[in-house]
Amino acid sequence: MTGIAGTTMQATPTTQSQSRIPTVDDLRVKLCFICREEEQYNSPEDPPRAWTHPCTCTLVAHEACLLQWIKAAQDDPTRALNALKCPQCGASYQLESDNPHPKILRLLDNANALLSIAGKVFVIGGLATVVVSFGFGVYLVLTSYGAHALRSMVGEEMYNILLTDEPSNWPWHAFINLPMIPVSLVLSRSAYFSSFPLLPLIISWPSSHPVTSAAARIGGTGWRLLSGPRDDLPYGPVFGWPPSPMMASLLFPLIGRIYREQYSKVMHAILGKKPSERGPVRDIVWDFGGEGPVPFRARIGLAVDPAERQRRQQQRREQREQQEQQEGQEGQEGQEQEHQPNAQAPAQDAEGQDQQGNAQTIRITNASIGRAIGGALFMPTIASFMGSVLYRLAKYSPTLRTILAIRPPLVGRRRIQLLGPWLDSQGFTRMSLLKKVGMSLHVALNLVCGGTRVWYESDPVWWRNSLGLGIFIVARDCIELLYLYLAKRDFETRRVKSRPFEGVDLSQLDLIHPPTSDASNGLVPAA
Amino acid sequence: MAVSTRRLQKELAEIKNQGTPVGIQLLSAENFQEWHLSLEVLGDTVFAGEVFCLRFRFDNQYPISSPAVQFVVDDKWKAPTHPHVYTNGHICASILGNEWSPVLSVISVCVTLQSMLASCKKKELPPGNDRYVRHAPDNPKKTRFEYDDDTV
């Protein structure tokens, strides 16, 4: 066909514009196959809407209608395969878009896909682990993960002081606290428990006493109540650098919250979305088959039961009618009131439609679950890595060293007491009961707020790890934002490529300048 | 005005101007949410002499989203006994599901269903009919049908 067209073009080189293959703009009447609106060539719409002829048959459409259809089809995994095909001739649509950095978008696309695969692998591996070690196994796994997380977060030295590898040394709360760590890490990923992910790591550990073996190593005679010279407080100061555990546990969620708010503002500024645009969740789809053919699909409809809504509307209407009746009995305005229910009914309908338009569907795939959970559980490892990077960098920068508050490892043999500074054993026994209780409370409160002396004086690995994690999160969010921005740019500026009516029998088309009768092959329209 | 309303107005005008194909009649189209059409299979088929009623329900995303189409089952109407039609009137047809496209219309859906009935050789209920009817949602679009049989 193209060969013939080529020769005709050569035969009439002077009339190039006439031998041009007609495009969608040459049609006398354009009929959108989606919305069925017509447009005459001599009375274009105001404002004009773009038309496209995306395939190899005679169908034409508004570009906006077609893009809407493509988007709807792509959102449904059962139809996504055919989303870019003409329903009549089966030709593939070609999309174009203005993307300043197509390579970066492709790269991020690939990275995204890779992460999804990793997420899937993680889910399969994780499921297998859970099934094998169900029950006590689960607890063991959670606990040992918790111990690993703690070791990553507070560093080797602190870990050996607080916990050690020997569970018989562990303080009682470790058996509750450690398995909670992975749980809270994962929960912190969901929108409903938005909190700083490492909070359970920081709370309760600083006030924990060194295990016996470690205490013997660092503290000589160790932790004997009311003994020795009064050289030290048993707890660290509440205000200091790095922040005391209490300050940190107050600060981190606060900073996290402010950061999230600012982040969503920046995101909305860049992506141009209003924060309130999200509709109510109507549907959560568990799509464990992913894109594969696995017939393991379940749907959970969270849709508002239409019958329920109707009943509520009915109730409202009845209430109104009752009111009217009362008012009618009271006054003479009953007649006017009667028209109200009719007037309000369409408004309610519109409301219902609005809800439907805004409603969103949350699609949960095994990859997305894997990414969320896997990502959360890698947090301590990432924190530890980032912390060690910061530690190395600090060798070259005294400022960073101050910020990180790096200290040499604990070596001194120091007597540490619980109630040392104000009283000796005689003093304490002589005190009144009230004063004893008050003093004990004071020490306990300071322990909780400031952490133990050991915690305060040792190298604050947890602090640089937390900072490192913060930096990591910010960097990750920036990359995510860039990805979203590029993807959005790509999506918004995409067009469906319009093709000339090549290969279509031109006598079927209603052209502004119809082909002359002698153009029997239907490819050479004359003037 | 919603896109669905404009499009349905066009389809309605087309039906009023050009009429409907043989065996298909518009029963009611009072609003742009729900239409009823009658369907009759002409010629020598297993459904000779039977008339069925089709109910179309449109949301405001039509024609981007497919209409919910089912046979009416009440005192007056009955669903055809067909391997792709459940006794509650729900129809298992790919053009109503993942093969729906905006190029289709109310009339073209009717014509397709008409030919689906016409090509039926033996009146049979779909497998698992009772179980499906017991648990079926009100709106057939909420059912995830498996379109496995292209022959009927």
From TrEMBL, chain A:
Stored InterPro entries: Znf_RING-CH, Znf_RING/FYVE/PHD
Origin superkingdom: Eukaryota
Amino acid composition bias (Low complexity), ranges on this chain: 325-334
Alphabetic keyword roster: Membrane, Metal-binding, Transmembrane, Transmembrane helix, Zinc, Zinc-finger
Transmembrane segments: 121-142
Cellular component per GO, a single term: membrane
Residues in coiled coil: none
Gene Ontology molecular function terms on file: zinc ion binding
Region (Disordered): 1-20, 301-358
Location of the protein in the cell: Membrane
Basic and acidic residues compositional bias, start-end: 306-323
Membrane topology of this protein: Multi-pass membrane protein
Residue ranges occupied by any RING-CH-type domain in the UniProt entry: 24-96
Protein name in the entry: RING-CH-type domain-containing protein
From TrEMBL, chain B:
Residue span(s) of domain UBC core: 3-152
PROSITE patterns membership: UBC_2
Annotated keywords: Ubl conjugation pathway
Basic and acidic residues: bias regions: 128-146
Source taxon at top rank: Eukaryota
Residue span of region Disordered: 128-152
PANTHER family assigned to the protein according to its UniProt record, in alphabetical order: UBIQUITIN-CONJUGATING ENZYME E2 (PTHR24067)
Name the record gives this protein: UBC-like protein
Source organism of this protein record: Daedalea quercina L-15889
